[in-house]
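note to self — DONT lose this again. spent like an hour looking for the file last time. sequence + predicted structure for the chain T wanted, 622 res
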Amino acid sequence: MLAPPPRPPITAALCARGRRLGEPRLAPGGGRVAFVSTAAGRGELVVVDLRAPAPGELVAGPEVVVSSEPAPRGARPFGSGVFDWLPDGSGLVYAATDGGLWFQPVDGAPPRRLVEGGPAAAPAVSPAGNEVAYVVDTRHVAVAPLTAGGPWPRRLSGGADFCLDPAWSPDGGTVAWHEWDVPAMPWDAGRIVARAAAATGEAVTLAGGEGVAVQQPRYRPTGQLSYLGDQSGWTNLRAIGAGGQDDAVLADDHEHGGPAWGPGQRSFAWTGDTGRAVLSRNEGGFGSLVLVDTASGTHRALARGVHGCLGWSGGRLCAVRSGARTPTQVVVRHGADLEHALVVAQGPLAGAGAGAGAGRPVEPEPVRWAADDGTEIPGRLYRPAATGEGPPPLIAWVHGGPTGQMEVVFNPRLAYWLDRGWAVLVPDHRGSTGHGRAFTQSLAGRWGEADVADVAAGLAAAVARGWGDPRRLVAMGASAGGFTVLNLLAAHPERCAAGVDLYGVADLFELEETTHRFEAHSLRSLVGPLPDAAERYRARSPVRKLDRIAAPLLILHGDADPVVPLAQSRAVADGLRARGRTVDLHVYEGEGHGWSRPETVIDELERTEAFLTRHVLRRRSP
């Protein structure tokens, strides 16, 4: 019998190509679904017709690109607040790359400008279809007319420092939104407020306050306001009743949404006026789609996988779905109990996933270990195919934020490393989301200390439990994850054979002075207020402890980064070279805080592989 041909490797180009899908939304009546498709840094609005040839069947028509110039803003898979449908389904209102709002008919007619300036985001069209509420530069909520020659936009919000996600009441008389004030970040504290859409009267706080994080205000078809709030210790879906009572729709020791890093997250939807809700549930980094019946108080899982951008219309539910083995896709669920699912569009190239071929396992296993102080740290371990040659080399992949989590979604980069025999450990250090408010808040004042200790303990567990070769351990992270990597290399020089830092923070003093507005106050809670915490800023800035970094270090950074200036990485590279250490800094021209071009992703993977092959893979345990 002939041996099967060797499987082709997962190439860097395969990982970089494809497109990013985001924000599917069903047209009123459920006969169409629109979404944002982003490739090579450019977004497009795509509309797909849906038809039901027979009971229980649903068929998708071809994708039709309806946007032209200006292009819509690119969307993250699980929300960016890019567009909304008109109530009659004739067109879309979208936030464009020029900062304004535009009306785009779906029949192919040219777009029409609605609002200049901005930047505008999170458009929400009124039930009557004559106005649009939106957010201006996350600073305030405004309402503008959709008809030519209408009145100037009117401002609804008051003196809050940040605003997100306006939502109309079913009768069109009220607009609610999410707001908060510095120095809090949205996952620290915030408010759900509402005001008459005509800008009469004062805004009224409906939920939230000191020590309570809220997000995603949305009215039920019956008129009651619902939102996510963490007053129970977990970010759960809640609803405000006619008598003002504020109750959890599903009291759950799981999160029902991620941190509010921007507009447009839609992790729950109401299925008409039936009293049922569908929500996305975070189960330790793994996801499931859950149907909740408020009348009976019961709930059940509809599907596995991380779901987002949920929307309901015409008896159908749309969502973005992704999983370890499932390329990110737009799905529409239908049927009396939403038992059927139709894949409308797919984003990444399927061949980039380890699930695309036998012998490429990518489904992780949940793991836990104890930090030095006994705190239990959760994570997920991705194992490569067994080689029979002892423990594999291992990458500890530290997520950014640091308020965030690397959920179990389709990640071609993971497949790239697994295909090359690497194990990958994804730690949820203190400060991560997905494990309740107390765990997220436990990094307050301790960034650069607790996160480093948690990852170091994870690497120690990896060695003790045989997950990875002790002489071939690597720490890798981007942004805040890069900050943790640099501090880890300095605090535990014996732990890692090399480090990979992608546009990581290196100087807390400089970050406090130069970072973008959204995060300008985050260091007050993560480290402490200046000048009182100046010693902490010095002690935890990697650029001030380069003498302790001995492992070879690869640094990748874009020269147009608005969040972490390139100067931070240059300072690290120059300081290490002056000390005779091995460091390679590569700068990507025109790239910002993360990569927008496929060729950059290709270079990142190939350059990192060459670096780790040279400095790590030749090292073996005795």
